[in-house]
TrEMBL record:
Biological function: Part of the ABC transporter FtsEX involved in cellular division.
Primary residence: membrane
The organism of origin for this protein: Sporomusa sphaeroides DSM 2875
Subcellular location: Cell membrane
Protein name: Cell division ATP-binding protein FtsE
Sequence ranges assigned to domain ABC transporter in this UniProt record: 2-227
Gene giving rise to this polypeptide: ftsE_2
Family stated for the protein in its record: Belongs to the ABC transporter superfamily.
């Protein structure tokens, strides 16, 4: 699914965000990316989304080599990826239904099929009863559920999440993690950058730890490993 070989990223400012990263993330894996602030976690994620290009190395996502990829191909790459952010990033003037439907790639699908799909993903995140609600009327945890529904509505092979529980209390964070776990058990690969020690230590998933731009630890059933 994701393959990095000797990937480095040096920003134009000269700051070395990642050095010589070689890692493979397979189909159906659930991976936490951890490390101190400034370690390179966001850069790692931005490279996968092709928001940034590596300075050197080889990077393949969903069978596409990102270095050689022309920019007109980027939308096709992103269609295979679902993205969840710390701050939800919902459209404030659209309902829950429209936030999810708006993200849907309507490829010859009828309005009826679209409604079915939107309702299915809202069911999966437990928010079907909120379809006509606006984001401002929802709690943080509910907004994040909508964001997750939006991320999976196109059936992406990979869901990328950057600090998805960063604004949530521990109990709500745990509910959100259960949603990610369900999505993962359905076969979707999950890559999540996080500072949430409690969640990482409880989930016992693969942990990739980055420090100063290098992978310093890669554990199968890992722990967070830092003091928060
Ligand atoms: P993390 O997500 O682990 O906090 P980042 O990937 O954001 O780490 O940052 C890694 C390093 O790269 C830091 O030194 C940071 O200051 C630098 N950096 C990140 N983004 C940029 C950018 N757009 N331009 C220049 N330097 C950046
Ligand atoms: P996070 O805490 O999520 O890792 P950061 O605080 O490191 O995020 O970065 C926030 C934003 O600022 C990101 O878009 C990152 O690319 C950018 N950024 C971080 N460090 C620098 C830097 N040294 N110069 C320019 N932009 C930066």
């Amino acid at each position: 699914m994701i393959y990095m070989n000797e990937v480095s990223k040096v920003y134009s400012s000269g700051s070395v965000a990642l050095s010589d990263i070689t890692v493979e993330i397979g189909k159906g894996e659930f991976v936490f990316v951890v490390g101190p602030s400034g370690a390179g976690k966001s850069t790692f994620i931005k490279l996968i989304l092709r928001e940034e290009l590596p300075t050197s190395g080889r990077l393949v996502v969903n069978g596409r080599s990102l270095l050689e990829m022309p920019s007109n191909q980027v939308p096709y790459l992103r269609r295979g990826l679902g993205i969840v952010f710390q701050d939800y990033r919902l459209l404030p003037n659209k309902t829950v239904y429209d936030n999810v439907a708006f993200a849907m790639q309507v490829i010859e699908s009828s309005r009826r099929e679209m409604q079915k799909r939107v309702h299915n993903v809202l069911d999966l995140v437990g928010l079907r009863h909120k379809v006509r609600t606006y984001p401002s009327e929802l709690s943080g945890g509910e907004q994040q559920r909508v964001a997750i529904a939006r991320a999976i509505v196109n059936n992406p092979a990979i869901v990328i999440a950057d600090e998805p529980t960063g604004n949530l209390d521990p109990e709500t964070s745990w509910e959100i993690m259960k949603v990610f776990d369900t999505i993962n058990k359905a076969g979707t690969t999950i890559v999540m950058a996080t500072h949430d020690k409690t969640v990482v230590d409880a989930m016992r998933k693969r942990v990739i730890a980055i420090e100063k731009g290098r992978i310093v630890r890669d554990q199968v059933k890992g722990v967070y490993g830092y003091e928060n």
